Amino acid sequence: MHYFIIAGEASGDLHGSKLICALKDNDADARFTVIGGDRMAAAAGVTPTIHINDMAFMGFSEVLRNLRKIFGNLSQARNAFDNSRPDCLILIDYPSFNLKMARHAARHNTPVYYYIAPKVWAWKTWRVKDIRRYVRRLFSILPFEPEFFSRYDCEATYVGNPSVEEIDAVKSTLPSRAEFIAANGLRDRQLIALLPGSRLGEIRCNLPVMDAVVRRFPQYRAVIAGAPGIADEVYRRYSALPVAHDSTYALLAASRAAIVTSGTATLETALLCVPQVAIYRSNGSKIAYNLMKRLLKVNYVTLPNLIVSKTVIPEMLLHECTVDNVADRLAAILPDRAPRHEMLDGYRAMRQTLGDSQAAVATAREIIADLKKITRD
Question: What is the DSSP string of 251-277?
């Protein structure tokens, strides 16, 4: 089978690479066209038609400034799809772009599979109509999503969460704090991990807050988790703190606590049992916050809180994401006291809810079985 797979962000590239490997394990004749990053390219053995570095735009203003590039990417993706004539289209999150591609594929009677359902339960619920219309099978990685989609007569299958298996696979191989400190030439102090995000806009908005917060805790050493494809010079614009590249899990495992930009990283941090404060700065205005609260259809933004339906980690968003507020929340979870213990208890409840299914393997097998069914019919 020929699989056309699209991911538009770093997390999607990682999950897409796992799915590609699972498809290859279950289909000896698998061929791929990919729109994604280095991980997907390596797994598929092909050059990406479009690289995620040319696709990840954050926020309304950044999208507006790059409209020509975005429309160019969409046109290039459609042409690549038409020229490759794949057996199916597999989409990974990134709904603004991917749902347009779903419509294009559906018009060509090509089956569309969506791995990692768009977060339409949070906002833009109207997108469910397009999913129902153009997507043949929807695969969810969050346990509460199938019930949500069922309300709109849209079936979703929970296949497990890929972050669970990724963390479980590496836990036993991660270095101790002493080993991490030695390997990175750091002084022997307790660590605070800073995860400012994988996109330039996220780093620009959130790293200055993180840097200012950790300056209030001089007894700790803060270290920035370097994202794939982001050069040191980018971090140097906003902070002089050390950057650890290609070792985010090792940094987290060695850290006493973390400050994390809201996203998949909050879930990964929780799975590694590292107490955290989640932030999201953007333009930081109260007006933007109130608008967001009106648009959001959920009570929480971060995945750990959403999965257990209660506040496990503090969410410091937009105008609430001030140095004072974040520092107060961080100070509460650093000592070995009740707030820290309560957060770790919440992590354990979250882990139990997620289960142990291998998401990529389950999804690959479902897609292959469905394509065989289409062929038989």
Answer: HHHTEEEEEEESSHHHHHHHHTT--EE
The answer to whether 160 and 354 have CB atoms below 8 angstroms apart is yes
For residues 347 and 303, what is the distance between their CA atoms, to the nearest angstrom? 11
Element (H, E) at 91: strand 88-92
Mutual orientation of helices 359-376 and 10-26 as an angle, nearest 10°? 60
* Alpha-carbon span 270 to 347, nearest angstrom: 6
pTM of the model: 0.81
Place of tokens 């990974």: 92
Say if CB 12 and CB 92 are below 8 A apart: yes
Phi/psi zone of residue 223: left (φ > 0), alpha (ψ -120 to 50 degrees), beta?
beta
Statement: residue 333 has pLDDT above 90: yes
H/E segment holding residue 230: none
Q: What is the pLDDT of residues 94-116, one digit of tens each?
A: 998 999 999 999 999 999 999 99
Separation CA 98–CA 7 (nearest Å): 8
Q: Which residues, including other chains, have CB under 8 Å from residue 221's CB and lie 6 or more apart?
A: 186, 187, 189, 190, 191, 192
Question: Cα-flanking dihedrals φ and ψ of residue 56, to 5°?
Answer: -85, 95
**Distance of CA 292 to CAs 27, 58, 142, 284, Å?**
43, 15, 22, 11
Contact 181, 187 (CB under 8 A): yes
Give yes or no for residue 289 having a pLDDT over 50. Answer: no
pLDDT-above-90 percentage for the chain: 79
Q: What is the chain's length?
A: 377
* pLDDT tens per residue, range 22-73: 999 999 999 999 999 999 999 999 999 999 988 766 555 555 566 677 778 8
Whose CA is closest to 48, among 56, 40, 57, 60?
40
CB 105: neighbour CB atoms within 10 A? 23
Closest to 139 (Cα-Cα) out of 369, 373, 338: 369
* Helix (H), strand (E) counts: the chain: 18, 12
DSSP 52: G
**Three-point CA angle 20, 22, 26, nearest 5°:** 115
Q: What is the DSSP string of 181-229?
A: HHHTT--SS-EEEEE--SSHHHHHHHHHHHHHHHTT-TTSEEEEEEPTT
31/3 Cα distance (integer angstroms) = 6
